[in-house]
Amino acid sequence: MSTPTTSRRGQREAKPRQGDRREAAILDATRALLADTPFSELTIGQIAAAAEVSRSSLYFYFANKAQILLVLYTEVLEEMTAELERWFADPARHAEPWSRASIEAAVTIARRNANIVGAALDSRGADPEIDRALTTHFDRAVSRSALLIERERAAGLAPAGGPTALAIARALMHMTLNSIHELLRCGGSASDAAELVETLTVLWARGVGTDPA
Amino acid sequence: MSTPTTSRRGQREAKPRQGDRREAAILDATRALLADTPFSELTIGQIAAAAEVSRSSLYFYFANKAQILLVLYTEVLEEMTAELERWFADPARHAEPWSRASIEAAVTIARRNANIVGAALDSRGADPEIDRALTTHFDRAVSRSALLIERERAAGLAPAGGPTALAIARALMHMTLNSIHELLRCGGSASDAAELVETLTVLWARGVGTDPA
DNA sequence: ACCTTAATCGACAGTGCGTCAACTAACAAG
DNA sequence: CTTGTTAGTTGACGCACTGTCGATTAAGGT
Questions:
Q1: pLDDT per residue over B31-73, tens digit each?
Q2: Of the candidates A11, A31, A125, which has an alpha carbon nearest to the alpha carbon of residue A71?
């Protein structure tokens, strides 16, 4: 059966034990390897070797390769979410142009963790767990945006007809996520990133209807 | 080494030989299996069994699993491209709303081949060949759209400032492709599809600037 | 009848995965 | 300090799947 049983990692919870060192070493080793090998071509054996543990030991900490990436990716996702929440919580920063600040934050964080984010996005189709993590955060971002759109509509700043705020937010978020994904895959330079932020900002504003240029 | 050598399929070209039957059988078997098993969980052995050939024989026709999907997916992509080219070649159909007809065609064809398209999109990260095929067609669609956008701008129907027509087309195409991808993954109903078409149509028009609502 | 090329298959070796049972290290309680 | 418990470690094992090779048979033309 290819169903991986849960690793014993679940049990290890409370105290900061010796094994935490190892866990961190495995994570670090993976990060390092990811710098010059695509995640899909990485084997458990390689990671274990790089972290200087036996392959079996690695299974003590992680049930499989995907779980490692999941932890790595979750960190990034949380950083991103924190940034967006901060932005969302501060009305003063909601000024025009519509959402440049948050888009810029997402692009910056994604670029800083390009290998991990790229790997996660690539594994999305192959690994349900990664996909669930991504979907969860994606959906949260969508609802947040939908809320803002509705606020704009209520204030008469955006037209209320047509598709629902949620549908618009969802589609525009797809645009955002996958434009970033492409940027990462092409090793996007800083200027490419800047151009993308500009484009996305304009398209969000137009899509929401705030910018009837 | 895991580098698959090219299958002997390359050699077989001109005449309609006996083996074409088998090739078709393999393709059909894959299509059938795809109806209730995700492609990633499908093995060469299963496909061979379903097509009633030995595993080794299958390798006579296809170098690996990905090549099978590639053929299947290429058919769909070509159907889609043909439809878009037809639309693009006929100026009479370029009427408002901006691109509903072409979006609708894409959604319809994707839905009709949901299993294949879904599988291909999911494999994108894992398989460079699939990715190249997709990217090629994606890029073509982007240039086509950019051309139309420039036409609108030249006619004064769309604002010329801001991001380039290409950048806009690219971002909106990401939105379109991945919204469709999500629709397929959730087994999107006909009404979901209709709502999506509506949303995308509006967002293309707003994004291009044709609809300054 | 013959020869070339298409097609088929069984057997093989390789790779990576996840599991297991046995072993050692840490460390608390008596 | 010895004894028991839990954390951590490992090599060896079996499994599933992959891709290749060489031998063998079927087609189809001349």
A1: 999 999 999 999 999 999 999 999 999 999 999 999 999 999 9
A2: A31
B34 half-sphere exposure, CB direction, 13 A CA radius: 21
Query: Smallest Cβ distance to A171: which of B159, B167, B203?
Result: B203
User: Which three-class secondary structure state does DSSP give residue B4?
Assistant: coil
- Residue-level pLDDT at A12: 46
pLDDT band per the 50, 70, 90 thresholds, residue B12 = very low
B9 Cβ contacts chain C strand, under 7 Å: no
Whether chain A has a CB inside 8 Å of the CB on B198: the answer is yes
Asked if A208 and A152 count as a contact pair (C-beta separation under 8 A), the reply is yes
Contact indicator for B109, B76 with CB cutoff of 8 Å: yes
What pLDDT does residue A11 have? 46
Task: Give per-residue pLDDT as tens, A54-111.
Answer: 999 999 999 999 999 999 999 999 999 998 888 878 777 666 556 898 999 999 999 9
pTM exceeds cut of 0.90: yes
**CA–CA distance, A27 with A69 (Å, rounded to integer):** 8
Q: Give the rounded distance of the alpha carbon of A94 from its chain centre.
A: 22
Question: CA–C1' span, B3 to C14, in Å?
Answer: 13
Task: Using the structure, give the distance in angstroms from the CA atom of A27 to the C1' atom of C25, rounded to a whole number.
Answer: 23
**Separation in Å: C5 C1' and A136 CA:** 57
**Residue tagged 């990905």 (tokens):** B66
Nucleotide with minimal C1' distance from the CA of A46 is: C16
Nucleotide nearest to A15 (CA to C1'): D7
Report which of residues A73 and B158 the model is more confident about: A73
Contacts of B161 in chain A (CB under 8 A): 213
Closest CA to A28 of A64, A57, A71: A71
DSSP string covering A63-107: SSHHHHHHHHHHHHHHHHHHHHHHHHH-GGGGPSSTTHHHHHHHH
- pLDDT bucket at A198, cuts 50 / 70 / 90: very high
Is the CB of B160 inside 8 Å of chain A's CB atoms?
no
Long-range contact pairs involving B152-159 (C-beta distance under 8 Å, separation at least 24): B152/B208, B152/B209, B152/B210, B157/B210, B158/B208, B158/B209, B158/B210, B159/A213, B159/B209
